[in-house]
Structures are given as C-alpha cells and as structure tokens.
Amino acid sequence: MDRNADAPWSNFDPEVYVDNNYRTPLEADLQIVRLLRDYFGRCFAGSVPGSVRGVDVGAGANLYPALSMLPWCEKVLLLEYAPPNIEYLKRQIAPEGFGSEWDAFWDVLREAPAYRDVEPRGRVSEIVRVERANLFDLDGRRRWDIGTMFFVADSMSECPEEFQRGVRCFMNALGDRAPFAVAFMKESVGYQVGDHRYPAYRVNAARARESLEPFAAELEIHDLHHVVRPGHEGMILALGRREGEIAAP
Ligand SMILES: C[S@@+](CC[C@H](N)C(=O)[O-])C[C@H]1O[C@@H](n2cnc3c(N)ncnc32)[C@H](O)[C@@H]1O
Q1: DSSP string, 103-138
Q2: For a pocket test of ligand 1, which of 81, 88, 105, 182 has the largest count of ligand atoms closer than 8 A to its C-beta?
Q3: Which residue's alpha carbon is at the smallest distance from atom 19 of ligand 1?
Q4: 45 CA distance to ligand 1 middle (Å)
Q5: From the CA of 200, how far away is ligand 1's center (Å)?
Q6: C-beta of residue 79 within 8 angstroms of C-beta of residue 56
Q7: Is the separation of the CB atoms in 58 and 152 below 8 Å?
Q8: 210: CA distance to ligand 1 center in Å?
Q9: Cα 174 from chain centroid (whole Å)
Q10: Is 8 left (phi over 0), alpha (psi -120 to 50) or beta?
C-alpha cells in the first residue's frame, strides 16, 4: 500500500497537471466553483468580520479555491508540500499576475456581486502567500477563519488511516464556525501526472460524510457525477462550517 511519504512529490509537474485538469475548464470544476461562490456568499451575507484569514491546504497547481476566498479575506495562505508546486504558486502570486488559465474560473465567481468589484490579479499578489508545509505537521492551532482543501486527503495516499488523518489535520486548523470546502475525487484508484503515478484512497459520498461529520455543522455533500478521466467515478464537494470534535493530530 502506497503511503504519502512513498509518492514522488518532488517530481510533481504542475504544468502537466494544469494541462490535464484546468487549462480547458471542465464542467465539474465550473460547477464546483459555482457552489463554492454561492456557499461562501451565504456564509458571509450581511456582514464580513474584520481580518478574516483563509487557507488552502495542498494547494498544488490550483488557484480557484484561493480565488473563491478573495472577497472575504485579509490574508490567504497557500500551504503546499511539493517543491515544483510551490514554485508554480509563487509565479501565480507575483506582481505580473496569475496565468490566464484561471480567468475562466474567475469569470464564474464574478457573476456574484461580492466578487464583482475585486480586481483579482492585484488582490492575489497583495494578500496571498505561499508556504511549504506538510498537512500532517499542522499543529492543531486553530488559526484560520475559512479554509479549503481540494483533492488532497484522498489524493495523497492509499492508506485509510492517512486519509482520515489528513481530514482531521485540516479540520483542526480551522477556528470555530469557519466555513470550509473540501473536495475529493470519487472512487479514485490513483492518477498519473506526466511520467509519475500518484496514490489515492477510494472515497464515496458516504465515506466523505462519515469522515467530515465529527468536525462539521451544516454539512452538505454534493455528489457530482462528472467523470474527467479513467480511474475515478466523479467528484465530491463537501461544504460546511467547522464545529464539534477537536481530535488529537
Ligand atoms: C491531486 S493534487 C491536488 C492539488 C490541488 N489542490 C487541486 O485542487 O488540484 C494533491 C496535492 O496534495 C499535495 N500533497 C501531497 N502530500 C501532501 C502533504 N503531506 N501535505 C501537504 N500537501 C500534500 C501534493 O503536492 C499535491 O499538490
């Protein structure tokens, strides 16, 4: 069984990954972005507390979770483990502005009023920062007010215990009532990025609910039946607010 530490993260190729997944926007991701936009909009309707801090864990080569948090946050931190992905993310937050591959996702976000007046490139380079971190080393200090984790706990290991630990470490980084969004590839058997193979743990809607429920209130599980490549059966998006159990890391 491939554990997280066994996978070739230093060889992860972000450009190939973006080509495979995001350069031509897939309907499943656009649907996820709509759901994110509307959910965060509802969470912050009426009032936005001052100094909201956001985090995207295992950000990899995906900017849309960070973009979805832009209107609400004073700061957004992208935590990532693989060095090539960290370099990719640093290029996206440089003053020259993020790559045009993310425009289609922003176009969906800006259909909602909260996003419309945000100038996304300036705002990203102003408030978003990138740091290297291992999800498993998050120390349980609950320092973020909104958080996302997309295709990480399910797409980093074959080991059930590491999947649950990934979910727990993410949840334990969020403050009380923090809105969150977590996405999993449904029933993934692993994935290829260029010449390298990466492990996955098979998650379905029931397993997603079971793993998140101890940590969440108002949990919504969206079971999206879009298949984007062989070796999985769709995508699962979980939305909710952090509440409940605080488990040891
Ligand atoms: C399938 S990719 C998902 C990337 C991105 N979040 C997305 O939505 O496309 C899995 C990501 O998890 C990261 N990752 C793997 N092990 C990790 C760990 N122990 N801590 C943090 N990130 C990790 C990988 O480097 C990679 O960026």
Answers
A1: HHHHHHHTTSHHHHT--HHHHHHHHEEEEE--GGG-
A2: 81
A3: 134
A4: 30
A5: 11
A6: yes
A7: yes
A8: 22
A9: 14
A10: beta
SS3 49: coil
Delineate the domains of the chain, giving CATH numbers in brackets: 4-242 (3.40.50.150)
State the Cα–Cα distance between residues 236 and 124, nearest whole angstrom: 27
Locus of tokens 């699962």: 236
| Number of residues written out for the chain | 249
Distance, CA of 237 to CA of 224 (rounded, Å): 8
241 in Cβ contact with 216 (< 8 Å):
yes
- Shortest-distance Cα residue to atom 7 of ligand 1: 62
State pTM to two decimals.
0.97
Q: Which two tokens stand for residue 89?
A: 């993310």
Strand 53-57 relative to strand 128-132, pairing: unpaired
* 113 Cα–ligand 1 center, Å: 31
- pLDDT tens per residue across span 100-115: 999 999 999 999 999 9
How many whole angstroms from 110 Cα to the centroid of ligand 1?
26
C-alpha dist (Å) from residue 153 to 113, 169, 170, 199, 208: 32, 10, 9, 11, 11
Position 226 scores a pLDDT of 82
- Identity of residue 83: P
Single-letter amino acid code for the residue at 53: R
Q: What is the mean pLDDT of residues 173-190?
A: 96
